Amino acid sequence: MTTTLIHAARALTPSTEINDAGILIREDVVEAIGPRVGLSLPAGAREIRAIGKTAIPGFVDVHIHGAGGHDVMEGSREAMAAVTKTVARHGTTALVATTVTASPEDTLRSVAGISKYITEQHQTNDPRAEVLGIHFEGPFISAVRRGVHPLEWVKLPSAELLEKFLQVAAGNAQILTIAPELTGAIPCIDAARKAGLVVALGHTDATYEQARAGIAHGARHAVHVYNAMRPFSHRDTGVIGAVLTSPEVTAELIADGVHVDEAAMKLLLQAKGAGGVILISDGISATGMPDGKYMLGTFEVTVSG
Questions:
Q1: What is the pLDDT of residues 12-49, one digit of tens each?
Q2: What is the second-level CATH architecture of the domain 3-55?
Q3: Which one is catalytic: 20, 261, 282, 291?
Q4: I want to staple 142 with a disulfide (CB 3.0 to 4.6 A). Which of 48, 104, 168, 179 is the partner?
């Protein structure tokens, strides 16, 4: 039985900050955490002195497309390994592999590959993030608010097409992004909820009333709030107004200081509370890589600066 005690300058837990912290790990399980002075070093255990470091729980990224030069849409073991190893080096220990709008055939092929990887991922001891499931971002999104998603593959929501995706996902589907204002959205939301998915409002031009209708049918999440959404105004609050005033809806936030203004981030946090906001990367294959040309699904992206 391997036992390790990490001595860090501080440790952050979901509820507190511990200075001069000790973290006792036995057989890969955190057994105790508290002030180092209060923890004894078990016989045969090793102590790692990280005096100048802060220890935090691993990040869980529920919206990420790729990293390390690879995109999850590649669906291969090599691509998924590159993604999970890269994000692990930056502190992410689990993720939900996020697709991008593509042809149904490409999506089905990608999902099949991701699902296969998920079933086999624990066969290696290499340090890498765990893939918790699949997030379908597209194709049931607004053409007006599609962002970089290719218009040619944007589709009206279809419970039948969703069922094909779910069959290939083989129980690994976790999140569905959908624009609730589109024709067919409500039956698709109902089907997704029946299948156990978290339904997310995103890439949407929904009015407040249309967004609230989606929430009434079980939508409980909002994708990268503010981005690729109908703008908020005092006479037309839209989907953002619905998200801000619906405590049952969690809100993704890209808090990189580029995608969302600081004041808007503060507004979201004050409206939802810290427990209602989920930080995401929305990272692509360029994550952890130098400037260059990278793929997002089937199209090329140039990263510079």
A1: 998 899 999 999 999 889 999 999 999 999 999 999 99
A2: Roll (2.30)
A3: 282
A4: 179
